[in-house]
Amino acid sequence: MNQREKFLFDLNGYLVLEDVLSPDEVAAANAAVEHHADLIGNRDPGLSEDAVGLRGDEGRGEFQQNPLTFDRPWCDPFRRMLAHPRVIDVFNEVLGPGFRLDHGPVLIRMRHGTEGHRLHGGTTFDPSQFHHFAHGQVHAGLCVAAWQMTDVKDGDGGFACIPGSHKANYRPAVEMLRLEQDWGCVHQVVAGAGSVVFFNEALIHGTLPWQPKDRERRSMLFKYSPGFISFGPPHEQCPITDATPEEKALYAHPSRPGRTHLEGSET
Ligand SMILES: O=C(O)CCC(=O)C(=O)O
Fold it and tell me: Deepest of 23, 46, 106, 225, by most Cβ within 10 A of its Cβ?
């Protein structure tokens, strides 16, 4: 992570890195999604909690099979995301060496009319989701790498957050979290296809209904924790049959000592 990236992640609780995937890699990821379209099922609506500004006609689409277990070459784009050098670089810094895949990947497929997700996160003490700065660096709990397979433009909807709220001390009104009151602090994040949105789950965040009629939202979310914490139930085993050493390391059980230090890129 460079100085700018560290500054923005600490300040805002999220960071957008553009063009991490090449256009060919984005096309391969979308081809893999389309090849497995029959495996995408819509959740029952409910994440919007029926708030007027968030509700929609259908729940978001998610894969019913872990895309890391697709046959080759279809799993390849998602395996590249799982242990991408930029992911390793960012999370070595903010989660610490030995960080682990906590849960995911989860596809979020939204179409025009797909409901949003009430804002959540932050505002209570949670030892698995936190932001702390000490000894010259960020120490974060559960964090997300959200890969964008389609463009997200201003006004489209999708991921939204209250920048800086991972450090907030007061609990906001539930009416604001349901977007029934506008306090002027909710920001919809713009990110091009091929970008990654890194965010801390301690950030107050959620999802705005998807507006474009001609373009789906396709984000693939991988959630990582420091090596000694498990937010979700720990994995029984790595589901990838021919896993690389990096992939196996990300699936190691939570523990403090002796976890593998992965090498990321410098920029
Ligand atoms: O990307 C989004 O739409 C939000 C996802 C979310 O709220 C979460 O992963 O906790």
Answer: 225
